[in-house]
Amino acid sequence: MRFHHNLVLATVDALHNIFNDGKYADQAIQKILKRDTRWGSRDRGFIAETTYDIVRYKRLFASIAKVSEPFNKQDLWRLTSVWIVLKGHDLPAWEEYFNTPVRRIKGGLDEVRNNRKMRESIPDWLDEMGVEELGNIWEQEITALNEQAPVVLRANTLKTDVATLKEKLIAEEILTTTHERFPDALVLNERANVFRTKLFTDGFFEVQDAGSQLIAAYLEPKPGERIMDACAGAGGKALHLAAMMENKGQIIATDIYQSKLNELKRRTRRAGVHNVETRLIDSTKVIKKLQNKMDGILIDAPCSGLGVLRRNPDAKWKLQPEFIENIKETQQEILQSYSRVVKSGGRMVYATCSIFPSENEMQVEKFLKSEAGADFELEDSQTLYAHRDGFDGFFMARMKKK
Ligand SMILES: C[S@@+](CC[C@H](N)C(=O)[O-])C[C@H]1O[C@@H](n2cnc3c(N)ncnc32)[C@H](O)[C@@H]1O
After folding, report:
1. Which CATH number do you get for residue 196?
2. Which helix (H) or strand (E) holds 155?
3. Which Gene3D superfamilies match (predicted)?
4. Which residues are known to be catalytic?
5. In this structure, are 307 and 243 located in the same domain?
6. What are the tens digits of pLDDT across the range 313-345?
7. How many domains does the chain have?
8. Alpha-carbon torsion (186, 191, 194, 197), positive or negative
9. Which domain range does residue 185 map to?
């Protein structure tokens, strides 16, 4: 493989912004990619994937490179040299790589093979929490969560169907595979920048993990119903709910951030969705007004995000145990307050993109035992694991109000 100095330099700069300035990896990468309009899709892919890989394996690579935080520019170049060597490539003859101990780097990986925290590059506290929460499966799950996530599309059934979309993508030289368990999903055979296609700008599909596509469906929304999407964010699931409801009925999408709801609105226009109304949660009034009014509610709760580490590897370094403890309290508060909007006979789905029982089953159990939960019964629940199901990790539970 031939390396280009300006692309590795861009990677080093992106890493500097992520590790030293605390920027989110996706934002830092987006910003760096704007640097040179002459970069083609391969160049962009190289910068993005190399940066993500080094973020993912920060602890491992830093230990092999014998550098520690805060990283200076030379340290960051050393991290890139470890990446190149461990990928099995020859180091280019650039001055930044003079005197790189190639054999020591190769041996460094062997030394840590039996040390999970190092090999999988995770903070000590997270490894301990993972074992406590998941026991034996933690090892397989964290390994799977370090793999690169596939790109998955969700056909927007308001405008097309999976088979037609698949054909249209072939015309754009984008080959995809269908998946029996995920009826609206198309998994890209090879990574491609699908956001640049006209099919995307015309709203024929959304980019959405396959596991995530099960969540809106789990609520079993029907055309004409009144559904609340309580933690709607930028609307990934709200758009799916609308498509399943064939644009009929009403979806009330709420969040505590207006900026996210604005993005949701923008996405509804592209997707041809007409039945979503956004409401900012700035007091308890919004929920009070909707008491006992909804046929169904989706609570896609804020969480640790550990199930989607493959897409956000920097979360490993940004997450703190205190944050996870606090978010669990928020999850229970959200369940307690939003469950009131469900009418008798209605459904509630509680979902997270976490794989930890303390954010999932245990929250549902606690809710069902509480006063607010006394009228609800659990219908079904399931966890998707990256190592078992091949996509992101998710949890979903469906409850019914008596
Ligand atoms: C997992 S994200 C939602 C993702 C979104 N449903 C999607 O499919 O794209 C959780 C969301 O909950 C929102 N949130 C946090 N606390 C909330 C609260 N008390 N009420 C409503 N939304 C809240 C966050 O701002 C965040 O957008």
Report:
1. 3.30.70.1170
2. strand 152-155
3. Vaccinia Virus protein VP39 (3.40.50.150)
4. 353
5. yes
6. 999 999 999 999 999 999 999 999 999 999 999
7. 3
8. negative
9. 152-207
